[in-house]
Amino acid sequence: MKLSTSIFKLGVFAPVVYAASLQQVTDFGDNPGNNVMFLYAPDQVAENPAVIVALHPCGGSAEAYFSQVPDLPPAADAGGFILIYPGSTEDFNCWDVATTESLTHDGGSDSLSVVNMVNYVIEQYGADASRVFATGSSSGAMMSQLLAGAYPDVFAGISAYSGVPYGCLAGSPGSSPQTADPACASGQIIKTGEEWADLVYSGYPGYNGSRPAVQIWHGTADNVVYPQNYDEAVKQWSTVFGVEMTAQNPDTPLPGYTQSVFGDGTQFEAYLADGVGHVVPTQVQPMLSWFGLV
């Protein structure tokens, strides 16, 4: 079934490109998190395509998130890259960002299930293992930052919307608003940059390779995941990369949004949206630019 159409104009010629459909994959390998996997592969997949993992918020689903970020599938059609939509099925459909298993490389739980979805796509579609990315909102943003910490060998970059730093919920009895220690989401977990960075390093002990480029977004009026988490994530990732803020660009990419650039702007950047609550809408073009896909 065709879900939508996109029109690209070249001069006076405007061919119609028909989008593919969202398909469930029922056997993608080991699934310790008991997650579900949906896949969006364009009709015209690029040779050695890039892959983006799109992670839904608490209470959401893979199918719902596919619709909630409507600009992403047409971008995949245009660029020939593949989208993975994982689905959480436990703890009010929130991603496990609290257990040692999920926080640790090859430890298990949701994070390993997501990585096995990536491995499936690499094998089945000849995807480029050096161009695998993750994005998500709220709980999905928390998992995106977790994946950056625990699987830096798998992901080349992330873009996280209204999340918390890696390890903020470590040891919590759950990861949902109903089960989690509320101290993290309410911005009460305050650490130094070095302490936050050490948590990232603990996700993959002994790893000394390159790390995913990290882009974070947060709203100043977020009263679900308090904006203090933006400040803590800035401390965490700027310390991991050993970079300081070098520029601030107001009204970028939208009025009221401020872009903070760190170092040479290739490893870490952060956006604070004035007056925006929970969740910051996904900004597809700046995200794809960060991933090097446009």
TrEMBL record:
Keywords: Carbohydrate metabolism, Glycoprotein, Hydrolase, Polysaccharide degradation, Secreted, Serine esterase, Signal
A Pfam family matched in the record: Esterase_PHB
InterPro entries reported in the protein's UniProt record: AB_hydrolase_fold (IPR029058), Esterase_phb (IPR010126), Plant_Biomass_Hydrol_Est (IPR050955)
GO molecular function: hydrolase activity
Keyword Kinase annotated: no
Principal subcellular localisation of the protein: secreted
Listed EC numbers: 3.1.1.-
Catalytic activity line of the entry: Deacetylation of xylans and xylo-oligosaccharides
Membrane-spanning segments: none
Compartments where located: Secreted
Signal peptide residue numbers: 1-19
NCBIfam families linked to this entry: esterase_phb
Family as reported in the entry's similarity comment: Belongs to the carbohydrate esterase 1 (CE1) family. AxeA subfamily.
Oligomer and partners: Monomer.
Function summary: Acetylxylan esterase involved in the hydrolysis of xylan, a major structural heterogeneous polysaccharide found in plant biomass representing the second most abundant polysaccharide in the biosphere, after cellulose. Degrades acetylated xylans by cleaving acetyl side groups from the hetero-xylan backbone. Esterase involved in the hydrolysis of xylan, a major structural heterogeneous polysaccharide found in plant biomass representing the second most abundant polysaccharide in the biosphere, after cellulose.
Name of this chain's protein: Carboxylic ester hydrolase
Source organism of the structure: Aspergillus lucknowensis
